[in-house]
């Protein structure tokens, strides 16, 4: 499997989150190499979160809020939390098809997942996502974002 390049990773943020057909699992699983929040949506606004951002910036999010996380590589223990409380989320597989990253639709090789967590923000707090690589080096990656 070709290593995902920055251009293909940028496309992940614009992927439709509709579930496609079962992904192709022909290649060995790529190790987990990146996790990051890329979008926070609430009734007040939608923010695209830049890499290495530590906090939301555009508005004060309150009420029902959706947090989207990109995972590059495959993990086996995904965990989303808001202020320490465990969250349930949905995940959509992302496949590498040639030079394009897209929601898996029966073609390509799974290269990661998009996770979406729905939460109710009553006050500013910390969102955290972590996962451990499914194979060597079996590292655990974590991302934190202060939701204002």
What would your notes on this structure say?
With 148 residues, the chain is mostly beta strands. The protein is 5% helix and 48% strand. It is built from one helix and ten strands. The strands form two sheets. Strands 2-1-3-8-6-7 form a six-stranded antiparallel sheet, with helices on one face. It has a four-stranded antiparallel sheet with strand order 5-4-9-10, with no helix packed on it. The longest helix is centred in the N-terminal third of the chain and has 7 residues, at 6-12. The protein is globular. The chain starts with 5 loop residues before the first helix and ends with a strand. Mean pLDDT is 84; it is low at 1-25.
Tally of separate helices: 1
Number of domains: 1
Let me know the number of strands: 10
The N- to C-terminal Cα distance equals 39 Å
Core attributes:
148 residues; 4-stranded antiparallel beta sheet; globular; mainly beta; 1 helix
Give the SSE map.
Blueprint: H1 6-12, E1 34-42, E2 46-48, E3 63-72, E4 79-82, E5 85-87, E6 89-97, E7 100-103, E8 109-121, E9 125-132, E10 140-147
Antiparallel strand pairs: 1-2, 1-3, 3-8, 4-5, 4-9, 6-7, 6-8, 9-10
